[in-house]
Amino acid sequence: MIRDTGPVQPGRISRPVVGVDISRGSWVAVRLDADGRFDGAALAPTIAGIVADLGRDAALIGIDVPIGLSDTGVRAADLAARAALPGRAASVFLTPVRAALLEPDHAAATRISREVTGAGISRQAHGLRHKILDVDDFAPRSPVPLVEIHPELSFRRLGTAVIPVVVPGSKRSWSGIRQRIRLLAAAGIDIGEDIGDAGRECGPDDVLDAAAVAWSARRVLAGTADRFPADGADPGTSGQAVIFA
To answer: Looking at the 3D structure of the chain, how many domains does it have?
Structure first.
């Protein structure tokens, strides 16, 4: 999946994890300590910068960006994740094929995508190409295992842990933000008011998404995470792309 370091061994969590999301052209990260408590946030222009800042001693880093690009068509992981989010499937964009991502011009990338997959590429997806390629380039040499996690799936799973079950509203709405804060707090993740540059320069939804990704990263370590597709490879091994939650 990333590099041949062997599978991530599930079991007792004794080291921190980090969750990462894209925010306004940068990366925002939230770190949870070995007990799952908030342990800091950071902002960096590259994924290597995030690892250097918060991830040196981490057991695992979860990232809300595609890991494992396809050369030939739509990723099964994206389709499976979409199917698990009724009413919000569009929050999981279909990852463009590698050749389309390597093309800086959107019109040219769209032509490539149509030739390979039969469908074009949205401006939103193409606009994320630099971040997707940043991870694609860094992953094989990362000193810490990286896994792909989608925060909407994470929050959906968090919502099933409370009674009554909460399906959070739009992450950009006031009610949606409040619901997400409450779900994270119920999981023991309390993000303070002053979290440095991440709190001043990032959208609140991106910080909350990074925290949810970190929560799911702990589930990956514990061996309890959902995976999409369900028969996807274990984290830290080579094979098809897998999204965890």
So the answer is: 1
Degrees, nearest 5: CA angle 77-82-142 = 40
Helix, strand or coil, per DSSP, at residue 172? coil
**Quick check: is 92 in a domain?**
no
Tens-place pLDDT, residues 105-156: 999 999 999 999 999 999 999 999 999 999 999 999 999 999 999 999 999 9
pLDDT at 70 over 70: yes
58: phi then psi, degrees, rounded to nearest 5: -75, 150
Distance, in Å, from the CA atom of 80 to the CA atom of 19, rounded to the nearest integer, reads 21
Domain that holds residue 214: 17-70+140-244
- Domain assignment present for residue 151? The answer is yes
Q: What is the pLDDT of residue 218?
A: 98
For the domain that residue 238 is a member of, what is the CATH number? 3.30.420
Looking at the domain assignment, is residue 146 inside a domain?
Answer: yes
What CA–CA distance (Å, rounded) separates 86 from 180? 18
pLDDT tens-digit map of 13-47? 999 999 999 999 999 999 999 999 999 999 999 99
Domain membership flag for residue 225: yes
| DSSP assignments along 75-95, one per residue | -HHHHHHHHTSTT-GGGSPPP
Yes or no: say if 149 and 217 are a contact pair by the CB < 8 Å rule. yes
